[in-house]
From TrEMBL:
This is Metallophosphoesterase. One of its GO terms (molecular function) is hydrolase activity. Residues 23-110 form the Calcineurin-like phosphoesterase domain. InterPro entries: Calcineurin-like_PHP (IPR004843), Metallo-depent_PP-like (IPR029052).
Length: 192
C-alpha cells in the first residue's frame, strides 16, 4: 500500500524503517477510518511490536450505542486480519468502548488487562486504556489513550501514533490523518 505523507512524517518513517533497533508502535482509540493509515505504517516501518490501548473501533462508541454490535464486530474482524498479516507481536488493552467477549474472539492471547506491565527486551511498558490505569505503575514507559491527558513518562496514543526504539528508548510521534479526531467524535481538542 502506498500512502502519501507530509515531508516531516515521511522523514520520521524513513528513519524508523532504516533503524536496526526493535520497533514498538503504540496506538489508541482508533476509528475505522484510520485502519488503512495504520496498516501503511506497519508495512513501511516493519514493526516488531504493536500495542493498542483500547477503543479499537472508536467511531462506533459501542458503550453508548450497543445496537451497533454487528458493525463493531466487522471492524474488529478487519483489524484482526490486518494485524494477522504482519509478523509483529500484538498487545491489546480493552477500552471503555470495547466488548471484552468480542475482543477475546478476535485477539484472544493478545489481550492484556489495563494496568499490566510487560517487558519488551528489558524495557518495562505499563499498559492501560486511561492514564489512571498506569500513572502509579513502575515502568519505563506508560502507554494509554482515552483522552488528551499527559503524564510523566507517558505516551498518549490519542495524541498520535507513538514509536519506541529499543534498546535506545528513543521515541517518535506521528500524527494521525486529518479528520481522525472528528471520526472519534471530538469536535475540538478538549482540555487544550
Amino acid at each position: 500500500m502506498q500512502i502519501k505523507l507530509p515531508l516531516f512524517r515521511k522523514r520520521v518513517l524513513e528513519l524508523l524503517a532504516s533503524s536496526d533497533e526493535t520497533k514498538v508502535m503504540h496506538i489508541s482509540d482508533t476509528p475505522e477510518s484510520s485502519y488503512r493509515f495504520i496498516e501503511g505504517l506497519i508495512e513501511k516501518v516493519r514493526l516488531d511490536y504493536v500495542i493498542h490501548t483500547g477503543d479499537l473501533a472508536d467511531n462506533i462508541k459501542l458503550e453508548r450505542k450497543p445496537h451497533l454490535r454487528r458493525r463493531y464486530k466487522g471492524a474488529l474482524r478487519k483489524l484482526a486480519r490486518m494485524f494477522g498479516g504482519f509478523n509483529a507481536r500484538i498487545y491489546i488493552v480493552p477500552g471503555n468502548e470495547d466488548d471484552l467477549e468480542m475482543l477475546r474472539e478476535f485477539f484472544g492471547e493478545n489481550l492484556v488487562e489495563p494496568g499490566s506491565v510487560v517487558d519488551i527486551e528489558g524495557t518495562r511498558f505499563a499498559l492501560g486504556h486511561t492514564w489512571k490505569d498506569v500513572v502509579d505503575l513502575d515502568a519505563d514507559f506508560k502507554l494509554y489513550g482515552h483522552n488528551f491527558k499527559l503524564i510523566e513518562r507517558g505516551l498518549n496514543g490519542v495524541l498520535g501514533v507513538n514509536f519506541v526504539l529499543l534498546p535506545s528508548r528513543r521515541t517518535y510521534r506521528v500524527k494521525y490523518p486529518p479528520g481522525t479526531d472528528f471520526e472519534r467524535g471530538y469536535k475540538m481538542w478538549r482540555g487544550m
